[in-house]
């Protein structure tokens, strides 16, 4: 045991030292070249400076969607809604504001996709710090990396990552308030102050969301144990509110630090739960709430000690509390009639999850030659969850918390020429998990600490080439891993058995793409097409033998091959007309031939009847269209009126394997949502008024087990913006 | 590794042959009028989940019964019951709904919905075999799920609940340490007899295995009269198996204790006790030690097949742990003669754990399913000769319920 630990330790130390020594020796040998290369570098910067930061991000060799959030500051949309209008992404929601959601990227979902806030992994930040709470106003842009990640986003992402980049304008104030259907309020304040003389910088943003979510749904109320005919009923227990404040203060533009910022995020939410997994399961009293407190430190310096050596690091400590309450003495139906209950609405619970997480990420990059850079990243996360529930105080799994210590290290070489860029990288994934296992004999419950270490090496490369000044071709590949969680690996001491043979989920991801951009006087056309290929194996899933209560185990089952195409066309005419359309088709096929399940009765192998069929419950064809027109000088020379129409489309899909059974009704029908928005901008953007109508057709929209989403809704937003 | 590959290859080849040879048999668009119609509730485990389907067939003895392009999807976890002419599929996602499946005019399966239970269902059976009234029980798995066991009766004709009575679990078995899990129920005369076993609701440890327990209620009032105990065997039945108590034609009741599947400890030999018709005490003169009997063992799953006999799945292998439902064989148990007859040609197989026993009695023959070498097959057991014959292949992971609708 000790031996393996020390071996693992050696490996990571070796990896780090190897990197540093390469950097060191190259730095020494190349110090002369560095000066020479400085001119070239400057040239590169100039050529990049001609493009927007977003455009430069887009032209990286990676397959990346870059969403320019600035264009959305007048919209009421949260980041989930924004991302859902781009290719490859479907966010499936359970209902209205604050509802649970499943984010899927090229068919990957859950922990296979990782989220970052300014490069800091935010998977465990608590339920009030999720994409559906964030207004577009807080971000500069959002980058979605598909399948292949740059090393500076250090994470075990199997299918890609989303990085939210917060606003960096040095001096500005952006205040907005909106009100809309279902008593929805959304307010946000964003500001930054920078003293250019002494570098003192304050950046702050705060936002608040509230909604009753009392939209109407079509349901069949259950009365006296009988289903009654369908009727339209207003939701009555679905209120949501969340508030977040983020402040960063420190110094920028100093000799020793381009950025040295101390920050604090304070966040919380309160949520009523209206339904379970289906519309038939109604609740009138269950609630959840959460709080998060996250202090952080960020440091960045370009040309540290020597020219071409850049260092940045972030560290944060996350304390979040997620509470779940079901103490009701009655159960509700859709008509709000009650029957008494001794087991809550679903199960008595006052579950409190106390999560603590220490995060550290550092990036070191050195330009070793005029066109060559070597970069190193380390990201470390130590996560611990302590659950408790006074309604179920003796639960063994609460007494023995799990702990996870994850490190991802990346080493990359990058080369950049005017029309060509390439990077090759490798990533080392290290995991140490701690849990407890039962060693009970003769009915005396007894548990002992258990831990495990794993390491995996991933690698990849990405390249981009401008065939013509207007046409860029891209290719990227990564062999990547998603590491198991502590429970998945070690069990929880009771319900889940340990699986010491559990391997991380792995995937080989390939992207091929082309970007075409044409500027013709007043016309601008951009085309993008991507082909994606994913060959994923060893998915981690629960193997629950049919009916034994505690004979469960996480196993590696699931082999999936994805072939997908995504395309987008954008057109604009002067600053008046914009039009865009994107479409995603993904063929996500189950390639597992046999299901092998080892439970306490023995090993059973059976044929997988879904072999070579589509993975169910996964949208496979969807798209979006957008059309906007702006009128300048409307009632004033610095005023502008713009009108926008957008359409979201999802092809029908099935929740269970459709080749099984006959005439299954578990399908999510084809859906269209039409949205309209009018924005009036006064005084060159100082005052903004927007009126938005989502789902104008009042079409029935659903995701996940036909949980109904809001019908037609209207939203009015007022915004004030000044900047120096 | 090579063995595994060889096995996979052979297995696939065998399956392909069986599919190819029988592919026409499972076309559910053609139902021969006048022939028998069976409904089978099957579960299919894929990489994503286990989904359940109810399929019809006219032939249990040959061909392949497959849910591919065939059968009615049953959402969520399902248990099956039969009453009158109706195959009940109870379960679902979120709420416990009841799909009542019967045959339409052209002998095709058709579903009627509407009935919804308040909570998860623990037992559901035709109370007296007349097909008029179903008796149901929702017994919570632990105190956080509810403090009351809830008995109800359902009128088969109207598909509606007639009576619903709550009984505090704590009144059936007062204990600060243990909870109880239901293992079976029978109505005899004007009383309902329920077997259960004590278990810790959080750790699933079974500390108290020295007694057999039968709770006796008035019927149809469901008023708890008393709980009788006997020290000759441990508790009846196992985790969620509903094979704890059986009634004969004369109204006599037999409790079946195995102390194996679902038990973390065993202190008594597996055995059967009797409660004579009309009485509320264990018959002191009846005791059948099934473990020491010739061809004996532990009776994990069973159904009553008439003439004081049980069709059973028994094991004589020492248990490998609390949740092992393994090394089973078919057997016929004569309750009055206290004999156990092994079924000739019975496969050796693993059980389906805690669910109702999927077996069908028809004309002196029992149809049950067993998975051998990863292929799930129907087996026909002739009760008179105690001989098994391998029947149709079920292209699914397990058989959850079976009934004859016509």
Description:
The complex is a heterodimer of chains A (724) and B (406). With 724 residues, chain A is mainly beta. Chain A is 9% helix and 55% strand. Chain A is built from 6 helices and 45 strands. Chain A has a 22-stranded antiparallel barrel. Chain A has a 5-stranded mixed β-sheet with strand order 1-7-8-5-6. Chain A starts with a helix and ends with a strand. Chain B is mainly β. Helix content of chain B is 6%, strand content 46%. Chain B has helices at 2-22, 169-172, and strands spanning 38-45, 50-57, 64-65, 72-74, 77-83, 86-92, 96-103, 109-112, 116-117, 123-126, 133-138, 148-155, 160-168, 179-188, 191-199, 212-218, 224-230, 245-247, 253-257, 271-275, 288-289, 298-306, 309-315, 329-334, 339-342, 359-362, 365-372, 375-382, 387-394, 398-404. In chain B, a hairpin with a 4-residue loop joins strand 1 and strand 2. The termini of chain B are far apart. The chains are: A mainly beta (724), B mainly beta (406). Chains A and B meet through strand 14, strand 35 and strand 36 of A and helix 1, strand 1, strand 2 and strand 9 of B.
Please tag this protein with its features.
heterodimer; A: 724 residues; mainly beta; 22-stranded antiparallel beta barrel; 5-stranded mixed sheet; 55% strand; B: 406 residues; 5-stranded antiparallel sheet; 2 helices; globular; disordered N terminus
Give a quick summary of the entry.
Chain A is mainly beta and 724 residues long. Chain A is 9% helix and 55% strand. The model of chain A is unreliable at 1-9 and 20-50 (pLDDT under 50).
Question: What's the structural blueprint in terms of helices and strands?
Answer:
The complex is a heterodimer of chains A (724) and B (406).
Chain A (H helix, E strand, L loop, with lengths): L1 H28 L1 H19 L3 H6 L5 E5 L10 H5 L5 E5 L7 E5 L2 E2 L3 E5 L2 E2 L17 E8 L13 E7 L5 E9 L3 E11 L5 E12 L4 E4 L2 E2 L2 E2 L3 E4 L5 E13 L6 E14 L14 E15 L7 E18 L3 E3 L5 E3 L8 E21 L2 E18 L6 H4 L2 E15 L3 E19 L8 E22 L2 E12 L3 H5 L5 E2 L7 E16 L2 E15 L2 E5 L7 E5 L3 E14 L3 E14 L3 E6 L2 E6 L13 E12 L7 E11 L2 E2 L12 E2 L2 E12 L4 E8 L7 E2 L3 E2 L4 E11 L1
Parallel strand pairs in A: 5-8, 28-32
Antiparallel strand pairs in A: 1-7, 2-3, 3-4, 5-6, 7-8, 9-10, 9-45, 10-11, 11-16, 12-15, 13-14, 16-17, 17-18, 18-19, 19-22, 20-21, 22-23, 23-24, 24-25, 25-26, 26-27, 27-29, 29-30, 30-33, 31-32, 33-34, 34-37, 35-36, 37-38, 38-41, 39-40, 41-42, 42-45, 43-44
Chain B lengths: L1 H21 L15 E8 L4 E8 L6 E2 L6 E3 L2 E7 L2 E7 L3 E8 L5 E4 L3 E2 L5 E4 L6 E6 L9 E8 L4 E9 H4 L6 E10 L2 E9 L12 E7 L5 E7 L14 E3 L5 E5 L13 E5 L12 E2 L8 E9 L2 E7 L13 E6 L4 E4 L16 E4 L2 E8 L2 E8 L4 E8 L3 E7 L2
Parallel strand pairs in B: 3-29
Antiparallel strand pairs in B: 1-2, 1-30, 2-4, 5-6, 6-7, 7-8, 7-9, 10-11, 11-12, 12-13, 14-15, 15-16, 16-17, 18-19, 19-20, 20-21, 22-23, 23-24, 24-25, 26-27, 27-28, 28-29
